[in-house]
Write a structure and sequence with these properties.
With 426 residues, the protein is α/β, with parallel strands linked by helices. It folds into two domains: 20-203 and 314-395, Aminopeptidase (3-Layer(aba) Sandwich); 210-312, Alpha-Beta Plaits (2-Layer Sandwich). 30% of the residues lie in helices and 21% in strands. The protein is built from eleven helices and 16 strands. The structure holds zinc ion. Zinc ion (ZN) binds next to α5.
Length: 426
């Protein structure tokens, strides 16, 4: 159980006078409770695609957040488990900060049998422990220790935990947008960048395209000249797509799957491919998107249809998000550790919030193995990361000047770099 620890004699609204060491000590005191909470959360399997499994996780999170003085509301989804929203019980605060996380995982029910929860050498292993149940644990305990210490943030923390992030936040995106638009800042509790635990100040944008090539079937032996091979044409397109890779600029284009043809003795009438694109800036994303959409067949008798299936805009640093990062770095120093920043190649809900409010991502676990069998978190770093989060929550409002927009982008749908379609896993 957590101890009630009244702290200091300063006013409740003052960060000044809140010693980082006291917050860290409070987090260290809660290490065992955090480990227990995390274990309980991981023991509930929560695949995005099986909404009924997620209710028990929401119950546990609700209990944790209510113990932190938060008022919780569940909103169920139609195809997903929806989300949990928590805000301080007190009312009338105008400024808010969004604390964002997801409780769904990519792991199907039954994974625990192959990947049981285990703790060895200070590491907890288990499905979803790193992405991102440890980050949710940080959130609950950061709020709880502030509550227990009698510290009230100047900027009201509003927590949104969704259950469809791993399948693209299709249902929760509009609520995330609504809150992010109102928020002074957004803190995303996705895992940090490993192995050194960097915070994520930038994320690449992600897009996926389906390419369908239509040719004409013919007998491969009797009259091949009457056929038009969709496979030959696709092979040319595949070469051109791979040619768009630009590692120096951080642009990657991968044709991940191809299909096509009927039989060896038939000129293939149809072929198709799925393409994944990652780009660090909106400008790059727009340029690559235009190239892909304008791919034309080399053979005029072939038809090519290109559809965009996924889009997460790049998360680019702004003046305001940079000052959020600087605050995190300063607070880490106060806590006695150094922290670095980095760019993530994958997407998160931070890609949604970044144009609507200054966003800092990667505030969750230090560990490794997102979506992989070796997934783990370093338990020894949980307390200091939780303390860092607590201190960040206590920060005064950021300068309200809007994020510096990138050339022509205002964060509205019309000027997006990648096409505005609903994403799937990133
Ligand atoms: Zn995640």
């Amino acid at each position: 159980m957590d101890q009630q620890e009244p702290y200091g004699t300063t006013g409740r609204d003052e960060r000044a006078g809140v010693a980082a060491t006291a917050v860290l000590a409070a987090a260290v005191d809660r290490q065992q409770a955090m480990t227990r909470f995390l274990r309980a959360l991981v023991s509930i399997e929560t695949p995005s695609v099986e909404p009924s499994t997620i209710e028990a996780a929401f119950d546990l999170l609700r209990e944790g957040l209510e113990a932190a003085g938060m008022h919780c509301r569940r909103r169920s989804g139609s195809e997903t488990a929806g989300f949990l929203l928590a805000r301080p019980r007190r009312a009338g605060r105008e400024e808010l900060q969004l604390l964002l996380g997801h409780c769904d995982t990519v792991w199907p029910v039954g994974t625990l049998e192959q990947m049981p929860i285990r703790i060895t050498d200070g590491r907890m292993h288990g499905p979803g422990v790193y992405d991102m149940k440890a980050g949710l644990t940080h959130t609950v305990f950061a709020l709880r220790l502030l509550h227990d210490l009698g510290l009230e943030p100047q900027v009201a923390p509003v927590v949104l935990i969704n259950a469809d992030e791993e399948i693209g936040s299709k249902e929760s995106e509009r609520f995330i947008r609504r809150l992010a638009r109102m928020a002074n800042r957004t803190l995303v509790m996705e895992p940090s960048l490993t192995p050194s635990g960097k915070l994520k100040t930038a994320r690449k944008g992600v897009a996926q395209y389906h390419i369908l090539v239509k040719g004409r079937a013919a007998h491969a032996g009797l009259n091949p000249e009457q056929g038009v091979s969709a496979i030959l044409e696709l092979s040319i397109l595949v070469q051109r797509l791979f040619g768009l890779n630009d590692p120096d600029r951080g642009i990657s284009v991968n044709v991940g799957t191809i299909e096509g043809g009927l039989r060896p003795n038939v000129i293939a009438p149809e072929s198709s491919a799925w393409v994944d694109v990652r780009a660090p800036t909106r400008e790059d994303a727009r340029r690559i998107d235009a190239v892909i959409r304008n791919l034309r067949p080399s053979n005029p008798e072939v038809q090519v249809e290109i559809q965009a299936a996924v889009a997460r805009q790049p998360m680019e640093p702004t003046a305001a998000s940079h000052s959020l990062w600087l605050a995190a770095r300063r607070l880490a120093e106060e806590l006695g550790f150094e922290i670095q920043e980095g760019m993530a190649g994958g997407g998160s809900d931070g890609n949604i919030t970044c144009t609507l409010s200054p966003t800092l991502d990667g505030l969750g676990a230090v560990g490794d193995g997102a979506h992989a069998a070796h997934e783990y978190v370093d338990l020894n770093q949980m307390a200091q990361r939780t303390a860092l989060l607590a201190l960040l929550i206590m920060e005064p409002p950021l300068d309200p000047s809007p994020p510096t927009p990138t050339a022509g982008d205002t964060g509205s749908g019309s000027s997006r770099a990648f096409p505005p379609v609903h994403p799937t896993p990133c």
